[in-house]
């Protein structure tokens, strides 16, 4: 939530108190340099003992509420017929208005089942934008992802409040070209992750649904970040200015055929689900559930997490919860933009995104500027972010490099985990790094997996810039911080 101070400035404020704490630790700059070298310049390969603020992701890392934790204690560990499942089903009915639900172990498991049930070799899946795992499962099923994003979706500096909108003209053209029967489904991703956590508008969702219906194509909604998209609709779309988040979510759901989500983000638990009002779709997907996940009432999830997800779904409709990371991100982005540090605007959900193309214009895309920036941020601050650029984009079938549309570094803000002084620290170190950006050089792969290479790939700095950067940092701040 935002409050206005007596000097007129807007301050995001924590609408919760901290009752359990976990000690953190800021390793000295010399250790950070060493740890980054040991991790092969891949932030995924760092150990948390070497990390001060973990902004890798908001997935499964959110602070849980007292109610979530207490619900976990009362879970029902039955293989079949668990009461925990029925409490989840009641929450799904109440929050989404959807009758049929199946738990899955996390979001990508839902994507796997959807691809199994709907995608035949040669089919296309239309999307407002892909997510890494959603694309991987369509590819593995022999399908092809076609992205239908709008004109300025990939512009990092924009005033468009709804860069996640799907372009209807491109939708019509894709159907015309392939025929509706070769399109498995159209997927709308809330708070579109890889373009900087950017929302779509309700009007766009309604329009996409109307067009999908006219062609008989199912609309699949990735709601992993649904509460933030609902919050942005409330803040940015005039029709919904006075509407509650709960009503906005229900209106969204009236425009989807299948909802799936990772339960690790907006719902602040660990797990996932698929939900629908279409019994025929439910049955088609359910056939695969016991093969890959588990029985219909646990789907590979711990019943404790099912309980936590049920509570988390209700809590995410509370504006204090839905805005908790979005308002901090807005502050983070605004302050960095004021200092001239290149960030993605408008501020989105899930993370503050830095534009590595503008931050490091001297590094060619083939030398992974976003990967280099993520490594440099860690060395200069102990903050772990995530590369979202060419390293996160696998090579084409012929082995050629696929240059990503955008070179971003994502500094995710897990919900309710960090305080404003943590954000102030991050802003300060990013300002320092921007002033010293010429010190940063590129990266090259030394070990490169073929699929989702960003997880386990190892890289090396081109020209030993890491040592120079750490040296300059120590000259300004000493080794201790
Ligand atoms: N869809 C979206 C929009 C996501 O952001 C993610 C995960 C998934 C699906 C897959 O869900 O991880 O539970 O299997 N995003 C995480 C992230 C990994 O860090 O952004 P999952």
From TrEMBL:
Cofactor(s) annotated in UniProt: pyridoxal 5'-phosphate
Domain called Aromatic amino acid beta-eliminating lyase/threonine aldolase: residue spans: 54-426
Domain of life: Bacteria
Pfam assignment, any one: Beta_elim_lyase
GO biological process entries: aromatic amino acid metabolic process
Molecular-function annotations in GO: carbon-carbon lyase activity
Positions of post-translational N6-(pyridoxal phosphate)lysine modification: 265
Family: Belongs to the beta-eliminating lyase family.
Protein name: Tryptophanase
């Amino acid at each position: 939530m935002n409050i206005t101070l007596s000097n007129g400035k807007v301050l995001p404020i924590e609408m919760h108190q901290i009752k359990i704490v976990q000690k953190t630790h800021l390793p000295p700059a010399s250790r950070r340099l060493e740890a980054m070298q040991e991790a092969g310049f891949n932030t995924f390969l760092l150990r948390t003992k070497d990390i001060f603020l973990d902004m890798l992701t908001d997935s499964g890392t959110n602070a849980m509420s007292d109610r979530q934790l207490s619900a976990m204690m009362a879970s029902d560990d039955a293989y079949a017929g668990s009461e925990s499942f029925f409490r989840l089903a009641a929450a799904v009915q109440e929050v989404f208005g959807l009758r049929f639900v199946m738990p899955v172990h996390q979001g990508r498991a839902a994507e796997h089942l959807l691809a199994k049930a709907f995608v035949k070799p040669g089919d296309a899946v239309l999307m407002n934008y892909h997510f890494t795992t959603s694309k991987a499962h369509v590819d593995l099923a022999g399908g092809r992802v076609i992205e239908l994003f709008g004109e300025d979706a990939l512009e990092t500096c924009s005033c468009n409040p709804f860069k996640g909108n799907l372009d209807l003209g491109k939708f019509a053209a894709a159907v015309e070209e392939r025929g509706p029967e070769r399109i498995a489904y159209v997927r709308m991703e809330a708070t579109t992750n890889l373009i900087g956590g950017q929302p779509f508008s309700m009007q766009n969702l309604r329009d996409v649904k109307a067009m999908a219906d006219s062609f008989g194509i199912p609309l699949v909604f990735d709601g992993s970040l649904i509460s933030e998209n609902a919050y942005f609709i409330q803040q940015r779309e005039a029709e919904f200015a006075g509407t509650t988040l709960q009503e906005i979510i229900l209106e969204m759901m009236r425009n989807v055929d299948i909802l799936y989500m990772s339960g690790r983000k907006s719902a602040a638990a660990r797990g996932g689900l698929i939900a629908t009002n279409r019994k025929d779709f439910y049955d088609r997907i359910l056939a695969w559930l016991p093969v890959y996940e588990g029985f219909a009432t646990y789907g590979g999830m711990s019943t404790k997490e099912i309980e936590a997800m049920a509570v988390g779904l209700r809590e995410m409709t509370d504006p204090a919860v839905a805005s908790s990371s979005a308002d901090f991100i807005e502050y983070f982005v605004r302050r960095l933009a004021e200092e001239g540090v290149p960030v993605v605007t408008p501020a989105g959900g899930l993370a503050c995104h830095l534009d590595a193309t503008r931050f490091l214009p001297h590094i060619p895309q083939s030398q992974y500027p976003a990967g280099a920036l993520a490594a440099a941020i860690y060395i200069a601050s102990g903050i772990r972010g995530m590369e979202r650029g060419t390293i996160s984009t696998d090579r084409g079938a012929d082995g050629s490099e696929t240059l990503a549309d955008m070179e971003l570094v994502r500094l995710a803000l897990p919900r309710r985990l960090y305080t404003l002084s943590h954000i102030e620290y991050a802003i300060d170190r990013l300002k320092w790094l921007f002033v010293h950006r010429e010190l940063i050089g590129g990266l090259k792969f030394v070990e490169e997996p073929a699929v989702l290479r960003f997880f386990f790939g190892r890289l090396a700095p081109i020209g030993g810039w890491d040592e120079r950067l750490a040296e300059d940092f120590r000259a300004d701040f000493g080794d201790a911080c």
